[in-house]
Each structure stands twice: as structure tokens, then as C-alpha cells.
Amino acid sequence: xxxxxxxxxxxxxxxxxxxxxxxxxxxxxxxxxxxxxxxxxxxxxxxxxxxxxxxxxxxxxxxxxxxxxxxxxxxxxxxxxxxxxxxxxxxxxxxxxxxxxxxxxxxxxxxxxxxxxxxxxxxxxxxxxxxxxxxxxxxxxxxxxxxxxxxxxxxxxxxxxxxxxxxxxxxxxxxxxxxxxxxxxxxxxxxxxxxxxxxxxxxxxxxxxxxxxxxxxxxxxxxxxxxxxxxxxxxxxxxxxxxxxxxxxxxxxxxxxxxxxxxxxxxxxxxxxxxxxxxxxxxxxxxxxxxxxxxxxxxxxxxxxxxxxxxxxxxxxxxxxxxxxxxxxxxxxxxxxxxxxxxxxxxxxxxxxxxxxxxxxxxxxxx
Length: 367
Ligand SMILES: [Fe+2]
Ligand SMILES: [Fe+2]
Description:
This protein is mainly α and 367 residues long. The protein has 14 helices and two strands, in the order H-H-H-H-H-H-H-H-H-H-H-H-H-H-E-E.
């Protein structure tokens, strides 16, 4: 199938103007951590060396995308590609919408490295800074870089998706950035990354499970392998936040409550393909319907983190800190109740809405 031939009116319009991020962002708050707390992160250098860098894998022990893909230097290449495409035939379009959305999210990695390097006290000041925080960020990025690479090459070989539309979406997304509202504040930043790594662990785990159900064990292995990396990264980031809870419980519980009040935005929330103004919402709806990443997962992650950091048991908090503690500890059941109500309402008003996705040649998928 050729790339979508028709150019829409919107695409023609977009071609006339220089690049402008197509989606609204919030008022930008910067440097919300008091500058004296930067010292605290400097003091944690050795701790991070011993406790965080150990969660990275030596490159020589890491998997590489090529381990899961047909080998272009081998005689069997064409047969391997043929087999891959045969297996992909059994997979429905809505699954591919989720996998493409996940791949695009991974491919916007330059944005996530930038985001980490906005954080005061832990940023890579030079691009090759020897601090443990900077080494972590670079090596984390290098590990993550394999995720988008592998999914991109796999999807390309399936022949099931419109690569040009996907590539455009990636370019738009990297150009737009993200708006996680972490305010250069590492307390907020590490709450955000703890949440997000777990979210990606869950969604890649689910695409692995579904690939297996569709009979594609190789794709299941690809998604499962990526999920395992995310789990390791989650362990590291939750450990950093755990340490912050230990040395500054008040500041950390306030940061946790602040991030949850603002709601954790998904990293690819500004995605756009040049056409669909609701692309991210539509992709999220399909992911919700298929059970790849759902509102229930959001509540589950929150519940997990509250337990992981023992938030209910923290003592000696200030008045404000206690309020923040109460807020985050009571939030999971509240989100679940709201979610159940929203689901019931959606069921009542259910109209089966089909939406085209440019990623799959404008074929329509049920939301
Ligand atoms: Fe990833
Ligand atoms: Fe990740």
C-alpha cells in the first residue's frame, strides 16, 4: 500500500507556514525549587553512584534491536521478512494503532532527555558531565533509544502501517516537545519519571500480552523485552523519590501532591500528524478500549506509588505536608469512583464512533 495519496486541506495549510507547535500548553512555571536545595542533590552524588547507576546494564550485556529483527546481511533475510509479515497479517488494525502510538512516544526521546536536563541540581551541565546524575541521564537515554529503534524497524517491515505519516507525527511531536509541568524541579521531575516508567512498563507489557493472543510470539518478545527495561528504569526512579522522602519528607510529599493535582500528562500528549487535532485523544481512546493503557492503570500506578513510598506512614510533617499526604492517600479511591461514573455514562451514551488514523492509511478504527 502506498502512502496516503490525498493531501488534506489542513496539510496544504500547514505547508504554507513555518513550524509552530500545534497544541496549547500551560503557563510555564520555572525554577520552583528553592536554590538552597540544589546542595541536597550534590550531596546525593555518591549515593546515586552506589544506588542508581547500578540499575543500568553494561552495554555488552544489553540486547540490541538487531537481536530481534531479520538480519539484512544473511541469506535468510528475505525469508525472515516474509515470516514477519505473515505473522503481522493476523494482527488487527486497532492493535497497530496502539503499537504505533507507543513507538512514536518512544521516538520522541530527544524531548525526554531535554526534560531531564531542565532539572536544577541534576542536569548534565556540559553534555559529558561526570556527575552521577548526568551519567545516569545519558545512559538511561542510550538504553531508551533502543526502544523506538526496535519498534520503528519492526513496524516498517510489517508493511501494515503508513511510515511517512508516522514519521511526520514524530517530527511534529519532537518539534512540539512536552509540557510535564515539572518546573525545573527535580522533586517534581522524579515523581513524574517514576510514574511514567511504570506507565510504559504496563503498556508495553499489555502489547506483549496481546501480541501473544494474536499468535505473534516474536512481537510479544519484542514488547516484553522493552517492558523489562522500563521496569528497571522504574525501579531506579522510584528509588530516587524514596530517598527524597527519607531526607525531605515534607518537600517530597508536597511535590507528589502537586504533580497529582496537575495530573500526570502522557509524554506524547502534544502529538499531531498534520491533520487530526484529536490524534492523542483518539489514540488514547483506542488504548483504553483495548486495555493497553487505561484510566484504571492510572489509578493503579498512583496506588502502587503511595504504597511503594509508604506515604501513609510518614510522620513529623508540617501542616501543609499533612494536607498533601491526606490528599494523595485519598486520591486513588476518588479517581476510581470518578472513573466508574465516567465509564457508566460513556456506556449509556455509547455511540460506536469510528475514527480514521493516518498511521494505518486512514482506515477507521472503533474508539
Ligand atoms: Fe522506553
Ligand atoms: Fe522508559
